[in-house]
Write a structure and sequence with these properties.
This protein has 4 helices and 5 strands, in the order H-E-E-E-H-H-E-H-E. It is α+β, with helices and mostly antiparallel strands. It has a 5-stranded antiparallel sheet. The longest helix is centred in the C-terminal third of the chain and has 7 residues.
């Protein structure tokens, strides 16, 4: 996926069909397509790395509620990330998601 992003290939994913999960409780739509807008690996100040994806729900009416969501405290604890990741709480349907969560809820 990181290679595809380097070449600016369009990417998409969908929820549902491969795991048993209650998608609504985490803000995702079951059997619904999402655009993958960006993939990156962030080097954090504590020398750890975090793999993130920026996704878009084209409907724009529900959004991810898990780790790295708009309401997650990670944004307040790491204020510098707001500039680096172009964090904007006003954008409807756009969200960041940790790669491990992506693997749990979404499939390509």
């Amino acid at each position: 996926m990181w290679v595809w992003s380097t070449y600016r290939c369009p990417m998409g994913a969908s929820c549902g069909g491969h795991v048993t999960a209650d998608y609504k409780t985490v803000g995702l739509e079951e059997n619904h397509a999402y655009s993958i807008l960006d993939v990156l690996t962030l080097a954090m100040y504590d020398d750890t790395q975090v793999q993130l994806l920026r996704l878009r729900n084209p409907w724009g009416r529900s959004t991810w509620q898990g780790r790295w969501s708009k309401n997650d405290l990670v944004w307040e604890r790491n204020n510098w990330l707001k500039d680096v990741l172009h964090y904007n709480t006003e954008e409807q349907g756009f969200f960041w998601m940790k790669f491990s969560d992506f693997l749990q809820y979404v499939m390509m």
